[in-house]
């Protein structure tokens, strides 16, 4: 998988080289850690159980892909088929259309989720948004369009071991992790919800 949730990208200009295995293992560990935090939030939540489960599945799938490179394998199969069928040189329009499709689907999914989850806790909304964004990022980067790769592979600052792609991915993981951590224990959450309901009735 092209996505790397780590502190450096050895392919980036002026980036400090970090062993590839370390980058890979840090990426897997980051996704597994967030998946654990989402599971913890699911156990604590009193509403939105299905959304928490879907977020957990998303981060679990991203962790598996980070470990085994499933998306890269699929892309390699398609690339091999394109060479055999002699349309590899004309692949760029297909790549652009796929990226536009993923972007449109992501925007539509987020719009629907904002409506469906508008009454749910903010922690759940942030976690789901981060999961959808990271899934879209994984799909877009797997396509490996040159202009997109150049953008995501650009170093943020000279000699800073962090690329644009790393920053976006790490930001999504941090948002999901902190939001999941912020889910209160069940009793506190229930008490807070009852207090809010009383205030709404009295108001």
Give an overview in words.
- By secondary structure, this protein is mostly helical.
- The chain has one domain (20-198).
- The protein is built from 8 helices and no strands.
Strand content: under 5%
Quick check: average pLDDT? 80
| Topology, number of strands | 0
Structural class: mainly alpha
Summed up, the domain count is 1
Distance between termini?
Answer: 52 Å
Number of helices: 8
Helix proportion: over 70%
In short:
It contains eight helices and no strands. With 203 residues, it is an all-alpha fold.
Explain the layout of strands and helices.
Layout: H1 20-44, H2 49-68, H3 70-84, H4 91-116, H5 122-143, H6 146-152, H7 164-181, H8 186-202
Highlighted features:
disordered N terminus; mainly alpha; 203 residues; 8 helices; 0% strand
């Amino acid at each position: 998988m092209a996505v790397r949730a780590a502190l450096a990208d050895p392919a980036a200009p002026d980036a400090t080289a970090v062993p590839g295995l370390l980058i890979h293992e840090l990426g897997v560990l980051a996704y597994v850690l967030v998946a654990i935090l989402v599971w913890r939030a699911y156990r604590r939540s009193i509403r939105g159980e299905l959304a928490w489960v879907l977020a957990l599945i998303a981060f679990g799938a991203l962790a598996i892909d980070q470990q085994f490179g499933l998306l890269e394998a699929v892309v390699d199969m398609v690339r091999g088929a394109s060479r055999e069928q002699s349309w590899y040189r004309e692949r760029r329009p297909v790549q652009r259309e796929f990226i536009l499709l993923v972007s449109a689907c992501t925007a539509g999914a987020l719009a629907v989720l904002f409506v469906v989850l508008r009454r749910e806790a903010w922690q759940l909304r942030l976690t789901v948004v981060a999961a959808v964004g990271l899934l879209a990022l994984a799909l877009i980067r797997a396509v490996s369009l040159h202009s997109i790769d150049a953008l995501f592979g650009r170093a943020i600052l000279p000699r800073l071991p962090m690329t644009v792609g790393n920053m976006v991915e790490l930001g999504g993981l941090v948002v999901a992790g902190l939001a999941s951590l912020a889910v209160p224990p069940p009793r506190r959450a229930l008490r807070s919800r009852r207090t809010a309901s009383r205030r709404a009735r009295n108001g």
